[in-house]
Amino acid sequence: MKRLTKILPWKGRGTARSAVEGCQRQRIAPNYDTPPSALRAATSPLGGGLLGIALALALSAAPAAAQTVAITAGTVALGDGSEPIPGGTVVIRDGRIVAAGRGVAVPAGAQVVDATGKWVTPGIVAGFSRIGLVEVDAVDATNDVEAGNSPFSAAIDVAPAVNPRASAIAINRAGGVTRAIVAPATARSIFAGQGAVIDLGADMNAVMRARAFQFVEFGEQGTREAGGSRAAMHVLFRNALREARDLSRYSGIPSGGGGARQARANDQRDLPLEEVPGANSLLGPNVNRPDDVLLTRFDAAALVPVLQGRQLLLVHVERAADILQALSLKKEFPALRLVLVGVAEGWTVAKEIAASGVPVIASALTDLPNTFEQLASTQSNIGRMRAAGVKVAIGMIDDEEARQVRLSRQYAGNLVAVARLPGATGLTWGQALEAITSAPAEAIGMGEQFGSLKPGRRADVVVWDGDPLENATAAEIVLIDGVQQPLSNRQTKLRDRYRTPGEGQLPKAYQR
Amino acid sequence: MASNSRKSLAALALAALAIAGCTRDKPQTASAEAPPRTPPKTYSHDPYPSTYRAYPGVLTAITGGTVYDGEGGRIERGTVILADGKVQAVGGPDTPIPDGATRIDASGKWVTPGVIDIHSHLGDYPSPGVEAHSDGNEATGPVHPDVWAEHSVWPQDPGFTRALANGGVTTLEILPGSANLFGGRSVVLKNVPARTVQQMKFPGAPYGLKMACGENPKRVYGSRNQSPATRMGNIAVDRATWARAAEYKRRWDKYERDGGDMPSRDIGLDTLRGVLAGEILVQNHCYRADEMAIVMDMAKEFGYHVAAFHHAVEAYKIADLLKANGVCAAMWADWWGFKMEAYDGVTENIPLVHNAGACAIVHSDDPNGIQRLYQEAAKALAAGRRIGINIPDEVAWEWLSYNPAKALGIAERTGSLKPGKMADVVMWNGNPFSVYTRPERVWIDGALLYDSNDPSRRPVTDFELGQPGEGDVK
Predict the structure, then answer these.
(1) Tens digits of per-residue pLDDT, B202-244?
(2) A-chain residues within 8 Å CB-CB of B210?
(3) For residue A192, what are the β-bridge partners?
(4) Which CATH number goes with the domain that contains A334?
(5) Is there a domain that residue A426 lies in?
(6) pLDDT in tens, A274-323
């Protein structure tokens, strides 16, 4: 997977070494009772005020809580797989979508934004990323993706490492990305730790849901981490879940029932572990464990919600045989709630994936046998899986995912291009947008919260100067939770400074 | 043999001198001057000669499409005639079509010169990217002008075929990696599937010398407590090496002029002598603006010329200097931040360089990126327009074919659709700056080597035979 060091530009994930304190947990999860826009407006550096940028569409005032905004006359795409709607309207109130589509009435008193000639979509959702964990990949001190010298694995929680002021957040926000699924990377175990769902707002409240999932490497990378063979990786995986089961037996935590369906019905399934009644006892002094354990107590405890189906398990697999092995884990551990990531050879076993109901977050444009687990790679992979009934989103794994999730749009657009090629299978335009908006939100179990312009969703809305999947298009207005976001960043400032070459009356350093 | 290599050397020197905008006056090479009184034995400058032969093509008339000629020209409902492997005619709808020509209707489609990637490691870092295939960096010492990228190229790299079918790439330069200050010779290839690298070598193309500044050499060797460990160490080792090369060149020039005892042979210094003689072109990996300025002075100090800075992430900061020195900048559209020297990347880099009058090139350095160079150009072009740099599409195509051809010393042969040049042509199924567009047909020297409508015109490498997905659309 990871190319050998070419000593070319330093691509992909870096070699992070910063240790994450496995036992220090911050309570970052938002309070869902507070309207998100109110929460955001209170902490936004913009103070909810007018942005001083000369946009043709600039809102006359940034929407504050309780304010109603109607974006009218644009080409509206809902992000649910449907095709774009010319002359549509999007109505936002209290940081949530009220209505979107054709024939939507503009409420009395609403602030109207005329989007004639523009496109309006949900914000882009980075389906698999490491954004917020890295400033410069090759600068270890700024790279919190993986922790090669940490004693912990599954217990690692990226939430406290997410830096809302990472340059990549501002730069990708300017590219219309509003939410991201953020995963750690493995270093010394097949378990990377727990990932988060974040927003890319210009404030300090990036983490929307901490510990949203556990991430496990289950192919070539996992094989390396497990000591050198897939067989060893499987033993390691099963042993880890056994240790989690043993630990939970001592704790008195409800098991979550005997199946995925029951687990889903459990209203505690989305709670962080320490808020589940009794869960803290896992970490208490009186918990006895057998002597023959491999995991630290913290790591074993972190896998309890995975085992019980209260936390998603994102599994990175590429090879067809590994995909089937991953799916078969549900026979042995019925409560597991799986999401497959990568899945280059998914099209060759698409029926089996579809039958399992397991969602997929796939790389869009992988078409080379870069590894022996990706021999059947083709850009038709996502189209073929979708045609077979797989729920599939686009994600970026080991592909500039810490800094360049803004490329998701280009990747999606390419799948529309693929649809025009004889013998290939791509996506319709609506499906392609869905793959980078609601599909990743659905895959992570948060489709009710964000990712589309359906009523009640968080008002993450982008107004584009054209077709958002096109190379030439840029975001003009970005709203997150209904709050207008700044689009300037280091890159726009560098660009402006060097718009004219040569020095002026003073050195460039005085120009900003 | 000697006279053959001498002839091809003269061709190389001529090609090198033809790089308009990316060259400057050079002393003629000793070998290109009048024959010596007593011809001494010398060494071959082309010991692994190209055996490339154009594959058969048919007389072809591509009509009705939007034609970008690659040098800024645009013709609506244009006609492009390909004959005997060459572009025979390019014109409007009234262009006469020769009898017997196979007509291809390009209505609603675009016709351009083939894409040229000046920075690729295909074959040297092929797929699958396993350790056994890691053949791009002789990272055993910082000065390795003795290694030649072509000696690592694995022609069965599936990446070549993806670059052809998805990227419309017809010519590409394969470079050694950037672990070393002097990485070795690069080679220019026609993007044709072949059994040997010689069968891919662009006939008569000058060699390149890969050099690198910045983080990579100092990291690789500094981490071994070896020089260079700093940027100043980089330049110190560079200068010491160029001084040796100048001495080597003096000795060999004298011998080839006056005869006498043959000087001792150094394979690496052969390459540097070729650079100092203007017959080998320097392709210099360099990100930071200040370092590019240092390197341009170093080139003047030792009497060579940098053809292009590659990965020139900060070219926009010194676009005026690049113009003044006649050095091209080969750039990504929007890569940034993977290392410190890439921290200041901006998407407007390419149009800012172009707008300053310097030579701008879009490059890939990547087996995936090479499939979408036309899209990368489109992103940069649009970013430029948003800040008021209005470059027409047909002019921006220079970034993809003519400018890289200039920096490779092959612009007289390919890179634009002009009568007599190689028929390296892509017909796109739409506007090639749209994300929705792909190559429909690709010709190399007039031979149709990819046709999206014809699975039999879809190359499958040896590696992929018998594997899952063999012969699939990719």
Answers:
(1) 999 999 999 999 999 999 999 999 999 999 999 999 999 999 9
(2) none
(3) none
(4) 3.20.20.140
(5) yes
(6) 555 555 566 666 667 777 889 999 999 999 999 999 999 999 999 999 99
* Statement to judge: residues A174 and A300 lie in one domain: yes
Angle ∠(A318,A323,A324) on CA atoms, nearest 5: 155
CA distance A27 to chain B (A): 30
Residues in chain A: 512
Q: Residue A15 contacts by C-beta under 8 Å, 6 or more apart in sequence?
A: A140, A143, A146, A148
Buried b (16+ CB within 10 A) or exposed e, A298-319: bbbbbbbbbbbbbbbbbbbbbb
For residue A423, the enclosing domain spans 124-450
A368 touches chain B (CB under 8 A): yes
Asked whether the beta carbons of residue A375 and residue B467 sit closer than 8 angstroms, the reply is yes
- Residues of B with Cβ-Cβ distance to A322 under 8 angstroms: none
Instruction: Report yes or no on A382 lying in a domain.
Output: yes
Q: Per mean pLDDT, which range of A57-71, A245-259, A264-278, A400-414 is the poorest?
A: A264-278
Chain A residues with beta carbon closer than 8 angstroms to that of B336: 171, 403, 491
Residues A134 and A112 reside in one and the same domain:
no
Percent of chain B past pLDDT 90, that is, above it, reads 91
Residues A59 and A129 in one domain: no
Q: Which residue has the higher pLDDT, A178 or A247?
A: A178
Model pTM score? 0.90
| Total of domains in chain A | 2
pLDDT in tens, B339-374: 999 999 999 999 999 999 999 999 999 999 999 999
Question: Is A229's Cβ below 8 Å from some Cβ in B?
Answer: no
Q: Which two tokens mark A183? A: 């995963």
Rounded CA gap, A499 and B399, in Å?
20
Chain B residues touching A473 at Cβ < 8 A: 382
In a domain, A228, yes or no: yes
Q: Does B435 touch chain A (CB under 8 A)?
A: yes
ipTM of this model?
0.91
> Residue B200 maps to which CATH number?
3.20.20.140
Q: At what angle do helices B231-258 and B267-276 cross, to 10 degrees?
A: 90
**Beta-carbon separation of B177 and A6 below 8 A:** yes
Residue B136: its chain A contacts at CB < 8 A? 6, 8
Residues A420 and A485 in one domain: no
Whether residues A471 and B378 touch (CB distance < 8 A) is answered with yes
Distance CA A511, CA A247 (A): 61
Of A375, A379, A400, the CB nearest to B468: A375
**What pLDDT is attached to residue A501?**
82
**Pair (A361, A418) in one structural domain:** yes
